[in-house]
Design brief:
This protein has a domain of about 130 residues. Helices cover about 15% and strands about 30% of the residues. It is built from eleven helices and 44 strands. Strands 10, 11, 12, 13, 14, 16, 17, 20, 21, 26 and 36 form an eleven-stranded antiparallel beta sheet that branches. Strands 3-9-8-15-23-22-18-19 form an eight-stranded mixed beta sheet, with no helix packed on it. β24 and β25 form a beta hairpin.
């Protein structure tokens, strides 16, 4: 679990998983990695040819196929495409319709970055293929496939691949457009891309101008992005920031690369996202896009119609080849992994009328996740009392003097909670395994003896079971506190590591722990060994701490890509869920099929919120009724009352993080010691039961901002909840909501 400290800076620190690597250049590279000294690296971009190839003239659209209420069209001039919603007569285009002020510069169906020697070239389908007459198309079942043969000049672009001039740059990309079940699937098989000798495709950007709008955006138009649990950016408003672009790195940065670190004191340049989904609302219509293949190597990029960019747009970029540049100008070394040869693809669903909202997008995303098997079809089972998620810190480090809540003390804490009327508890027991706050490798560890003997542990587990509480043992399955032969390797051939802050360092232990990523080839055996060890203990479930927020490639002796890693880690979650409940920290979506609970589900944005850019419960709406979830513990927030209210608004469980012992540090104890929190927590628990207990299996069907500081959440059983964050009462639809409170309307 990632704890937080007292100040805002510490809060950000505690919630961040900081990526750190040794940046010393090794004499060798990781397995499957090429290493070359290139001196200074230069960039060369595509030369703009003609406006007509970058914008759509709807007179050039040719009908291709139909599925349900959508039709696919092909642009015979730009070799782009369009999707028409027949019910609303709305057409979404891969390239924008040009206005008087728009040149169409930069708009393309496909853009690739290609390395060759010391230069990285940016080619696009419009200037480097269509303008040269080297694009082609052919019909396919329920759709169309378009091939873009790209080069720096027309002669090369139109050459046969086996007859290319020496050292010529040539890339051929085939995009498939398929209509099925009323959705558009756009795919590229990276293994079938043709690249001339001596060059490597680094990234592939797909349809980043799909649905793009200009300065004519309506007042209620917006772009949905996967920032935190979701955020919307109102496109009609002028940008309130100098930043006109935002990037969201699916499942966070990769510690095997080290080229996109997160920092404590600066705005994150690449914000992590737990779900690869985004969308756009335009008038009475909207689309939801979900990265259905290659998601582990994807980034979602949003640009606003300000500054140098002409359009409001959002799309996907895939990192086809892991590429890291190290060294000073003039003395740089380029590390390149093995290119990805699988499929990348995005599925688009189209919505209209009332469904043209982020609520409708969440419903569409939920259906896609269930249909693809990523989410379960099960529903949450309602009980008489709603659960409260309580994270109890067993120890600050592995030393005996660092114990904060041993087995007997944690049992006593549960009894005191029960006495206060807290009748259902999900107990996330952190630091319970050997290594405590800095856990050892999972393969052969058990509950830590420093916390008490086995009998004391069994008494704790038995009491939890008797009271119908659930005891979740917190565990890291793919990281360890030690570096060794079983560590994953970076592209540099060094051990891949991350740094996790220790919020109790003022009491015991280091300020941060270095955790080493485990070689992915070792994870399966380690989890199996752990399960064998734990068979003699009877307890409720596991909480996977690391794999729900950390995804990495591995360049050790058995190399893994991030896509291979996510499949492996998802399988381990399934294994751990057999006979036990399963909780997952953060909730990267590939880990959720067998999860019962998500802890620390993001609810705040990484990029700064403004009046026009703000958080919405998109992921929460996707999960509600299928998986229980909680946000960061309310007592770790600067405003615990507002945090609790936000959890209720977003349909989350009330959550707290406590210790039984006092640390002797006044600031720490004011935040973490249970005695300072338990009475207020019991009051909030009662309120949470009144608001949400019987809604846990329901779908959250709508959410909206009613007026300043007032929000409305609706469920599929017609239950509506109003939330007022203002200091004064407000009246909405003849209903008065007290200040800093919630009101349920049946």
């Amino acid at each position: 679990m990632r704890h937080t400290g007292i100040t805002r800076k510490r809060i950000v620190s505690g919630l961040s998983l900081l990526l750190c690597l040794s940046l010393l250049l090794a004499g060798c590279a990781g397995n499957g990695v090429s290493k070359s000294k290139i001196g200074a690296r230069t960039e060369e971009t595509a030369k703009f040819t003609d406006r007509q190839y970058h914008i759509t003239n709807t007179n050039n659209l040719i009908y291709v196929a139909k599925s349900g209420l959508i039709e696919l069209y092909f642009d015979s001039v730009t070799y782009g495409m369009g999707v028409r919603e027949t019910g609303r007569d709305k057409t979404w285009l891969s390239l924008p319709v040009g206005g008087a002020q728009e040149t169409g510069a930069g708009a393309a169906v496909v853009t690739v970055q290609v390395s060759g020697g010391g230069t990285v070239y940016t080619l696009n389908s419009q200037d480097n293929s269509v303008a040269f007459g080297s694009a082609s198309f052919k019909p396919s079942e329920n759709g169309l496939q378009v091939t873009y043969d790209m080069a720096l000049d027309s002669d090369t672009a139109n050459s046969a691949f086996d007859a290319l001039p020496e050292n010529a740059l040539y890339v051929s990309v085939t995009v498939q457009y398929i209509l099925t079940d009323g959705a558009l699937h756009v795919k590229v098989n990276c293994g079938e891309m043709l690249v001339s000798s001596g060059y490597t495709v680094e990234t592939l950007t797909l349809l980043d101008h799909f649905g793009a709008t200009g300065e004519d955006a309506a007042a209620d138009d917006y772009i949905l992005v996967p920032d935190g649990g979701g955020a919307i950016d109102q496109t009609a408003a002028l940008s309130e920031s100098e930043d006109t672009a935002r990037t969201f790195l699916t499942y966070g940065a990769d510690p095997a690369l080290g080229d996109r670190p997160q920092t404590l004191d600066e705005r994150v340049a690449y914000a992590a996202s737990v779900i690869p989904a985004y969308g756009m609302k335009c008038g009475e219509n909207a689309f939801l896009a979900f990265v259905e293949s290659g998601d582990g190597i994807s980034e979602i990029r949003e640009n606003r119609c300000t500054g140098a960019d002409t359009y409001n747009r959002v799309g996907t970029t895939f990192r086809v080849t892991d590429t890291v540049l190290r060294g000073k100008d003039g003395k740089q070394t380029l590390y390149m992994g093995t290119p990805y040869v699988g499929e990348v693809g995005v599925c688009y669903r189209f919505l209209s009328d009332r469904n043209a909202s982020y609520s409708g997008m969440a419903t569409a995303c939920r259906e896609l996740l269930i249909r693809s098997g990523i989410l379960s079809t099960k529903t949450v089972v309602n009980t008489e009392y709603a659960p409260m998620l309580v994270a109890v810190q067993a120890a600050a480090d592995s030393g005996k003097k660092a114990v904060l809540s041993d087995y007997k003390q944690t049992l006593e804490l549960l009894k005191r909670m029960k006495a206060k009327g807290i009748n259902n508890v999900f107990l996330r027991y952190n630091g319970v395994l050997e290594g405590a706050g800095d856990q050892q490798r999972i393969g052969n560890i058990a509950p830590a003896s420093v916390l008490g003997n086995r009998k004391a542990f069994e008494e704790l587990a038995q009491y939890a079971n008797t009271q119908q509480f659930t005891l979740y043992l917190n565990t890291d399955i793919c990281t360890s506190n030690r570096n060794g032969q079983a560590s994953a390797k970076t592209v540099f051939g060094k051990a891949a590591s991350i740094s996790v802050l220790n919020p109790f360092s003022e009491f015991a232990g280091e300020e941060s722990f270095t955790r080493f990523a485990l070689a992915l080839s070792e994870v399966d055996a380690d989890v199996t060994g752990f399960i064998d060890t734990m068979q003699k203990y009877d307890f409720g479930g596991y909480c996977i701490d690391d794999a729900g927020r950390l995804l990495y490639s591995d360049y050790s002796r058995a190399a893994y890509s991030r896509t291979g890693a996510q499949n492996l880690l998802s399988t381990q979650a399934t294994t751990l869920s057999v006979g036990h409940k399963l909780m997952v920290d953060t909730g990267n979506v590939y880990m959720l099929k067998n999860a019962d609970v998500v802890a620390d589900l993001p609810s705040e944005t990484t990029y700064p919120q403004t009046d026009n850019y703000y958080a919405v419960p998109f992921v929460q709406m996707v999960l509600h009724g299928i998986v229980e979830y909680a946000h960061a513990p309310a007592n770790l927030s600067e405003n615990s009352e507002a945090a609790f209210l936000k959890a209720m608004e977003y349909g989350a469980l009330p959550a707290f993080a406590w210790t039984f012992r006092q640390t002797g540090n006044e600031n720490l104890d004011a935040v973490y010691h249970y005695e300072a929190q338990i009475n207020r927590a019991a009051e909030q628990y009662i309120k949470a039961n009144e608001l949400l207990c019987d809604l846990r299996d329901a779908r959250m069907t709508a959410h909206e901002k009613v007026q300043q500081g007032v929000y409305r959440t609706e469920y599929n059983n017609s239950i509506v909840l109003y939330f007022n964050y203002n200091d004064a009462p407000v009246t909405v639809n003849s209903i008065t909501v007290a200040p800093m409170s919630a009101l349920r309307v049946n």
